[in-house]
Amino acid sequence: MSKLIRISDISADKLESLSKLTGQSKQKIFDKVLTLYTYEQTLKKANEQYAVLKKNKKAWKEMQEEYKDWDVTLGDGAKDD
What we know:
Layout: H1 9-22, H2 26-55, H3 57-71
């Protein structure tokens, strides 16, 4: 399903330039930009949550202990692809 959105003239010019530069459609470029922005925001939120967790000494210690439990899975003998 296609929907129309309004973008600024500056963004439209940038989108046009990127399309010419890459040979990709404006829609494909816009989709990629949204995907990257989503990734960036998700990572930012995760980092914020880790900062909150790290301030709680008890919770941070529990997390570190859990990491140690998971570390043993690296020695499972499976070969990397």
